[in-house]
Amino acid sequence: MPNVIDVAKYIIRISLDSSEEGEYDLTPMKLQKLIYFCQGFHLAFFDSPLFDEDIQAWVHGPVCPSLYHRFRKFESNPVILIDADTASLADREKHLIDDVYRLYGQYTAAKLRNMTHDEGPWKESRLNAVISKKRLKRYFDSVITPQKTLPPLTEAEKEEVRSILLKAESDGEIDLSQFCE
Fold first, then answer.
1. Comparing C-alpha atoms, which of 98, 72, 94, 70 is closest to residue 83?
2. pTM for this structure?
3. Which of 65, 68, 83, 125 is deepest in the core (most CB within 10 A)?
4. Could you give the 3-state DSSP secondary structure of residue 1?
5. Rounded to 5, what percent of the chain is helix, strand, coil?
6. For the chain, what are the domain ranges?
7. Nearest to residue 12, comparing CAs of 106, 75, 80, 72?
8. In this structure, what are the phi and psi dihedrals at residue 55, rounded to the nearest 5 degrees?
């Protein structure tokens, strides 16, 4: 299993590779948010963490402390990394990170912070507390699971439901008046 720094190196590499000259904007805050999304989606898709390190609920959203300490010297400037060895990542991990980056890499650090502030894992955690992997998985499972809805009924099916309900009411099984104004 890779560690969070391995995942960060890969994100830095793909961000540099996909940026136009003068457009590179991968700040430490943006990197933190992308790491959060990668961990969450990996938990949901593969039922296992991408990395072992914990993510905590900080003021500006989810943060992995070891990653913060490694890259805080860049402050709000883009992260530069010479050693971008990503050999510890499996192909499926790289594909997931690529997909997350395609989806979320287009946003600024501030936009990503705001997005994470609107999500359950951060909102439901105490400030500076660990956001459990279980909570992350539960939330991201709900993100990737399509909401099941019933298909619309045909007119014939609606009429059948009406007649069943009216019969049940006339037999004293239900009282439909509670559903009418």
1. 70
2. 0.78
3. 125
4. coil
5. 55, 5, 40
6. 4-144, 150-181
7. 80
8. -115, 135
